[in-house]
Design brief:
The chain is elongated. The longest helix has 37 residues. A hairpin with a 2-residue loop joins strand 1 and strand 2. It is 59% helix and 7% strand. It folds into three domains: 117 residues, Fumarase/aspartase (N-terminal domain) (Fumarase C, Chain B, domain 1, Orthogonal Bundle), CATH 1.10.275.10; 222 residues, Fumarase/aspartase (Central domain) (Fumarase C, Chain A, domain 2), CATH 1.20.200; 56 residues, Ribonucleotide Reductase Protein R1, domain 1 (Orthogonal Bundle), CATH 1.10.40. It is mainly α and 466 residues long. The protein contains 18 helices and eight strands. The protein has a two-stranded antiparallel ribbon.
Length: 466
């Protein structure tokens, strides 16, 4: 008991505990706040909304078959709608690292919704009548089926944002590619001079790769729509109303606009996080491509005098506290840092996916948090990089032309004209003297400088020599 007038006293199976008087949550949430002062981070907002939607859908499904009184169901649904409308979000307070499976968050939702419903019905906060958190808000449910369902719904909410961000970046690469279709440059393999290509080909390839990554992300969406909700504690459907799994899935489909349906095997959907791991794998694969492309941008922008300098990135901030005038590729550096963090989240998700035991995976709170972070961080990083660097990117065509004509790799174009061995001698002469291949072939009367220029352009544009 406490005499503190800023608190109220609630009681559960473990005894009594003081709860902040103004809190809409209750005793089990308060215990969790005390038990888990771990990261200082509250639950993900999309996850909170997803879990509240589940409570709303469950109330409607239970009302539909007469298991939940109309008055209580209406009060629960109204409370859920207020939260979904943006009210009371500060009442979801349990740390992301908490009791296994997410019991603490489930009770946080149950208690907050019950208190809101009871006060609306003339009751008192902390006195769970007529709406009880367990008996009514949690009717037909368990932490074990609501939490994995909420993780899947939250991932479904985030996925379109991530795909849109990547597609926008791909579109920007494609735009640059189209603008620079005729900008011939030296290709590089093994970081050495290679045959000519165009900036257009190079950047269009980035766009194609990112769009392919989007397709993989989209393929991961459908399995997330198969919910295990209705499995209750062990996937058996204990204490659920007739046809509850089907009815609650239909209600969630209506609320979310997603093709939610009950999984064919509710036990499997509770045991296995395979669909979430599949999504994480698709995000990892996208991340690996983003790292590669970001590193290319940093290489191509290196300089301005001693690097490649073929592209010019917008100066978004000073690059050094000691070197005046220095400008760094900060947005692509930031993107790399985020990508490395996302790879770490994927590794954690993989470890937690295989850590499920028997009928339940108790690592779900941290697994969900890692997935949410990966999706949000990557979405924000891709959007910022596109907006502040990619959209203002310029190609230094003169620099590309200079490198092109100094490239020893141009000797490769002579293979079909004079043979590999003779072309190798031209390459050696160019490397030894530092003179362009163009000049050497002209001096040796192999072809005119103009003919060689035309050969280079054709090879870069079409990838073939006639």
């Amino acid at each position: 008991m406490t005499n503190d007038t800023t608190c109220r006293t609630e009681k559960d199976s473990l005894g009594e505990l003081a709860v902040p008087a103004g809190a809409w949550y209750g005793i089990q949430t308060a215990r969790a706040v005390t038990n888990f002062p771990i990261s200082g981070r509250g639950p993900d907002r999309d996850f909170v909304a997803a879990h509240v939607r589940i409570k709303r859908a469950a109330a409607a499904a239970n009302q539909q078959v007469g298991w939940l009184d109309d008055t209580l169901a209406s009060a629960i649904i109204t409370a859920c709608d207020k939260i979904l409308g943006g009210e009371y979000l500060d009442q979801f307070v349990v740390d992301r690292f908490q009791a296994g499976a997410g019991t603490s968050h489930n009770m946080n939702s149950n208690e907050a919704i019950a208190n809101l419903a009871n006060v609306a019905l003339g009751g008192v906060r902390g006195v769970y009548k007529p709406v009880n958190p367990n008996d009514h808000v949690n009717m037909g449910q368990s932490t074990n089926d609501t939490i994995p369902t909420a993780i899947r719904l939250a991932a479904l909410a985030k996925l379109p944002r991530l795909i849109k961000a990547v597609r926008t970046m791909a579109d920007e690469y494609a735009r640059i590619g189209a603008n620079e279709a005729d900008t011939v440059k030296s290709g590089r393999t093994h970081l050495q001079d290679a045959v000519p290509t165009t900036v257009g080909r190079e950047f269009s390839a980035y766009a194609w790769t990112l769009r392919r990554c989007c397709l993989r992300l989209e393929q991961a969406r459908q399995p997330l729509c198969e919910t295990g909700l209705g499995g209750s504690a062990a996937g058996t459907g204990l204490n659920t109303a007739p046809d509850y799994a089907v009815n609650v899935a239909a209600e969630l489909a209506r609320l979310t606009g997603e093709p939610i349906r009950a999984a064919d095997d509710l036990v499997a959907q509770m045991q296995s996080m395979h669909d979430l791991q599949t999504l994480s794998s698709a995000i990892r694969d996208l991340t690996l491509e983003l790292i590669r492309i970001a590193n290319d941008m940093r290489l191509l922008a290196s300089g301005p005098r001693t690097g490649l300098g073929e592209i010019l990135l917008p100066a978004v901030q000073p690059g050094s506290s000691i070197m005046p005038g220095k400008v760094n590729p900060v947005m692509f550096e930031m993107l790399n840092q985020v990508c490395y963090q996302v790879l770490g989240q994927d590794a954690a998700i993989a470890a937690m996916t295989q850590a499920g035991q028997l009928e339940l995976n108790v690592m779900m709170p941290a697994l969900g948090s890692a997935l949410f972070d990966a999706m949000d961080w990557l979405t924000n990083a891709v959007n910022a990089t596109t907006e502040f660097n990619l959209k203002g990117l310029r190609v230094d065509r003169e620099r590309c032309k200079e490198f092109l004509h100094n490239s020893v790799g141009l000797a490769t174009l002579l293979n079909t004209r004079i043979g590999y061995a003779a072309a190798a001698e031209v390459a050696k002469a160019s490397e030894k003297t530092g003179r362009p291949v163009r000049d050497i072939v002209s001096e040796q009367n192999l072809m005119t400088a103009e003919e060689f220029d035309a050969l280079v352009l054709k090879a870069a544009r079409e990838g073939r020599i006639e």
